[in-house]
Design brief:
- Chain A is an alpha+beta fold.
- Helix content of chain A is 72%, strand content 9%.
- In chain A, helix 4 packs antiparallel against helix 6 and helix 7 runs antiparallel to helix 8.
- The radius of gyration of chain A is 65 Å and the shape is rod-shaped.
- In chain B, strands 2-1-3-6-7 form a 5-stranded parallel β-sheet, with helices on both faces.
- In chain B, strand 1, helix 2 and strand 2 form a beta-alpha-beta unit.
- Chain B is globular and about 30 Å long.
- Chain B contains 6 helices and 7 strands.
- Chain B starts with a helix and ends with a helix.
- Classes of the chains: A alpha+beta (503), B alpha/beta (131).
- At the A-B interface, helix 7 of A face helix 2 of B.
Chain lengths: 503, 131
């Protein structure tokens, strides 16, 4: 695994360069071998030419020796000076011819040794036989014509001729051997070069296929993927294979597709949120209109009854009280609705001052204590202040809402316990009543807008916005609000705010 | 006055409405001479018609615990298939849906007491002729 990932880290361009270099070296080597073959062949040709030249020189030297011998014999037999001319001519030409022969036949020390051996035997014949015999024939012709002298001459010449034959034979054999060796080497080299070139051709084809596979195919895949992407299929992803830059291309493509998909998803979600908020707004307007129409129906209906009918004084008062109460309810509804709207749009300004929650609870409790003769308010507060940071008017609104609910939802009266205390790092305010409680089925939505539980059927007035506003206010103070309730046994509402740091 | 009271004396009207003031207002609008029963929530608005077999039902579409449309279709499927129903609603645009669900009249809140009374009288007279 590690090896393969390491292998993948080698870039494609490096691979291409390395591959090309190796192939170039291989082709160069094949050509080198070919050049060697040609050189070897050329060398063999030169050797052959040289061998022919040596043979020619040798033959000429031999002819010279034969001329010497012919002149010698003719002169010795006849004593005529003119017959001695070949001898004289050959004798004069011999040194130059000898030198030329030696010069030519000295390619190797061995050849030179053999050539010198031949030349020595010629010298010996000329110095120790021929020249003395010519002088003898000039002085005493008869003595030079003896059998001994003739036999001696024949012997010497025979030896020389044998020398020549040996020399030529050896020379030809060596030359033939060398030529055939060179020919063989050349053949082998040509075979090697051709093999090398064929191998190179195969490798180049293979390298081309490799490049096609590792570049052309992935690039085609990327192009196809891009086409699918352009066609709207943003889930298009490519298999993450390939080497180096191609892998990078694939990865970059996938990243691009992911980003595109993510941003489209984001746009769709944004769109959905906009639609939802638009829907929520239109729902709210519709709910508000509905909520306004119910008290309005009472106001207009009872007014109409009062205007059109004769109503007894006592009943008239009752209807007028209903009209007044419903009018107030309309007014409270409008105020609460505006509060909710401002809270939701974050436009409600909340002061950030040091507030003693203890004082707020005490003041609100005193206000409510006088309103309901049926209820007993039991206020429990610590001797020290309960400092939080926030808006005293808004916190008073929350406490007032909880107290008002506690009284409203315990229509038969009872004790309402109000307590404030420090609870670790928070200040906790609790309002407990002995009222009707909240049925389990409406507990979940009690903090929602216009949630009034079963208040209407119990004849309890209210806008259904108080707790929604209270929750928004408490949350705007960084706190939380909750409750526990059992139907028929009463409810306990509480909220907590972070304690303000001293100083 | 007395004659009219006698002809309608036997008529029972069930008022299904969660707002107590509006229940009172409906009684006032219809006037003397009816026996009124009240259903302040969804469950009682389903239960009472079966027990009472009323002559007329005044039904609010927004009752706690049950939608008015559910109650309406329940009425039409049961013993009260022919009982005239006046739907009153603060949803001014739900008239078509109310008629489709089987309402005989639709009265938008806030309503004119006389208009409600006229509708009730008309429906009860029709009902009387059919029987």
């Amino acid at each position: 695994m590690a090896a393969s990932s390491k292998r993948r880290s080698v870039s494609l361009s490096l691979r291409m360069v390395a591959g090309s270099a190796v192939l170039a070296l291989l082709v160069a080597a094949a050509f080198g071998v070919l050049v060697y073959a040609v050189t070897t062949l050329d060398d063999a040709t030169k050797r052959e030419r040289h061998a022919k030249a040596v043979t020619a020189q040798t033959l000429q030297l031999e002819k010279l020796v034969l001329d010497l011998d012919t002149g010698l014999r003719g002169f010795v037999l006849t004593g005529r000076n003119d017959l001695l001319r070949p001898w004289t001519t050959a004798r004069r030409a011999l040194p130059a011819r000898r030198r030329a022969f030696l010069q030519l036949a000295s390619t190797t020390p061995e050849e030179r040794r053999r050539a010198e051996g031949l030349v020595n035997s010629i010298n010996q014949y000329v110095e120790y036989y021929a020249t003395p015999v010519v002088q003898l024939a000039k002085a005493t012709p008869a003595a030079s014509r003896t059998d001994i002298v003739r036999q001696e001459g024949a012997l010497e010449l025979g030896q020389i001729r044998k020398h020549f034959a040996d020399f030529l034979g050896t020379e030809n054999a060596l030359s033939a051997a060398r030529t055939s060796a060179a020919q063989r080497r050349s053949d082998e080299a040509i075979a090697a070069a051709v093999t090398g070139l064929i191998l190179s051709a195969l490798l180049i084809t293979g390298f081309g296929l490799y490049l096609a596979r590792s570049i052309a195919r992935p690039v085609k895949e990327v192009a196809d993927g891009a086409a699918r992407l352009a066609g709207g299929d943003l889930t298009t992803r490519l298999e993450p294979h390939g080497i180096g830059e191609v892998e990078e291309l694939t990865n970059a493509f996938n990243l691009m597709a992911e980003r595109l998909e993510a941003s489209r998803r984001e746009l769709e979600e944004q769109n959905e949120r906009l639609r939802e908020s638009e829907q929520a707004k239109s729902d709210l307007v519709s709910v508000v209109a509905h909520e306004l129409r119910t008290p309005l129906a009472s106001v207009l209906g009872f007014t109409s009854v009062l205007l059109q009918r004769d109503v007894a004084a006592e009943q008239r008062r009752e209807y007028l009280e209903i009209i007044e109460a419903q009018g107030r309810r309309l007014s409270a509804l409008v105020n609460d609705f505006l509060d909710v709207q401002r809270l939701e749009e974050g436009q409600l300004s909340i002061a950030s001052e040091l507030v003693d929650v203890s004082r707020v609870v005490r003041e609100q409790s005193e206000l409510f204590a006088g309103q309901s003769p049926k209820h007993l308010l039991d206020v429990s507060l610590p001797p020290t202040p309960l400092p939080v940071r926030g808006d005293s008017n808004r916190l008073a609104q929350v406490v007032a809402n909880l107290l008002s609910n506690a009284i409203k939802y315990s229509p038969s009266g009872g004790v309402v316990r109000v307590a404030g205390k420090r609870n670790g790092t928070v200040v906790r305010v609790t309002v407990q009543d002995e009222g009707v409680g909240i049925p389990a089925e409406v507990q979940r939505e009690i903090f929602g807008k216009f949630a009034r539980g079963h208040a209407a059927e119990e004849g309890i007035e209210g806008t259904g916005l108080g707790l929604a506003i209270s929750r928004s206010l408490v949350e705007a103070h960084g706190g939380q609000i909750s409750f526990e309730s059992t139907k028929g046994r009463g409810s306990t509402f509480w909220f907590e705010l972070p304690t303000a740091s001293p100083g | 006055m007395t004659a009219q009271a006698e002809t309608t004396a036997a008529k029972t009207v069930l008022i299904c409405e969660d707002d107590s003031n509006l229940r009172t207002l409906v009684r006032l609008a219809l006037g003397e001479g009816y026996r009124f029963f009240e259903a302040p929530d969804g469950p009682s608005a389903v239960e009472l018609p079966r027990k009472l077999r009323p002559d007329l039902i005044v039904l609010d579409l927004m009752l706690p615990g049950r939608s008015g449309f559910e109650i309406l279709s329940d009425l039409r499927d049961g013993d009260n298939a022919e009982t005239p129903v006046i739907v009153i609603s603060a949803w001014a645009h739900s008239d078509e849906a109310a008629y489709a669900a089987g309402a005989n009249r639709f009265v938008a809140k806030p309503f004119d007491p006389d208009e409600l009374r006229a509708a009730a009288v008309e429906l009860l007279e029709d009902d009387g002729r059919q029987q």
